[in-house]
């Protein structure tokens, strides 16, 4: 009979293998010469706040950062990018940090594909994004990293 501890460790190990293989697939996909029309993959490392923080705005009840991210930020982001060719490539829960600085923790990884780098910049610097989506991102996340990938062969 397999112990619960061993089964849990095995499941974590298998999940890590899947994540590493996905990362390698992403890297192979984006390893092409960069041009103005080459798709880019934005890798976002997310750490949610325990409770979303809008700076004590009246009327906002306690919600987790994760709830705000998916219920408000993602909804606004989808509305803003509806006419664009922006797609969710991958969303996954971080199982463990491997070769990361001590104390660095992330909750989820999101990989989003944009048609090109200028589309990413245009969208994330637009007044619409800055007023409709970014406040929810700031309220939801304790920390995040945005990594633009693509263009190497």
Helix coverage percent: 40-55%
* CATH architecture type: 2-Layer Sandwich
Question: How many domains?
Answer: 1
CATH topology: Alpha-Beta Plaits
Radius of gyration: 18 Å
Query: What structural class do the secondary elements suggest?
Result: alpha+beta
- Rounded mean pLDDT score: 82
- Secondary structure tally, helices: 5
Strand segment count: 4
Distance between the termini: 48 Å
Report the major sheet: 4 strands, antiparallel
Please tell me about this protein's structure.
This protein has helices at 4-30, 65-80, 117-124, 127-132, 134-140; strands at 40-48, 87-93, 108-114, 141-149. The protein is of the alpha+beta class and 153 residues long. A four-stranded antiparallel sheet has the order 2-3-1-4. Helix 2 (65-80) runs antiparallel to helix 5. The longest helix has 27 residues, at 4-30. The termini are far apart. Mean pLDDT is 82; it is low at 26-33. Keywords: Membrane, Transmembrane, Transmembrane helix.
Question: What does the secondary structure layout of this molecule look like, with pairings?
Answer:
Layout (H helix, E strand, L loop, with lengths): L3 H27 L9 E9 L16 H16 L6 E7 L14 E7 L2 H8 L2 H6 L1 H7 E9 L4
Antiparallel strand pairs: 1-3, 1-4, 2-3
Helix pairs in contact: 2-5
What attributes does this structure have?
alpha+beta; globular; 153 residues; 42% helix; 5 helices; four-stranded antiparallel beta sheet; 4 strands
């Amino acid at each position: 009979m397999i112990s619960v501890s061993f089964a849990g460790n095995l499941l974590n190990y298998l999940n890590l293998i899947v994540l590493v293989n996905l990362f390698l697939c992403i890297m192979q996909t984006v390893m092409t010469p960069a041009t103005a029309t080459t798709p880019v993959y934005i890798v976002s490392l997310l750490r949610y706040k325990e409770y979303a923080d809008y700076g004590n705005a009246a009327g906002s009840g306690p919600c987790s950062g994760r709830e705000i991210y998916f219920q408000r930020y993602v909804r606004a982001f989808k509305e803003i990018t509806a006419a664009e060719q922006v797609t969710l490539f991958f969303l996954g829960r971080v199982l463990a940090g491997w070769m990361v600085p001590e104390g660095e923790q992330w909750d989820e990884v999101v990989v989003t594909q944009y048609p090109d780098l200028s589309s990413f910049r245009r969208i994330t610097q637009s007044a619409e994004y800055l007023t409709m989506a970014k406040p929810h991102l700031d309220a939801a996340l304790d920390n995040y990293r945005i990594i633009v990938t693509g263009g190497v062969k």
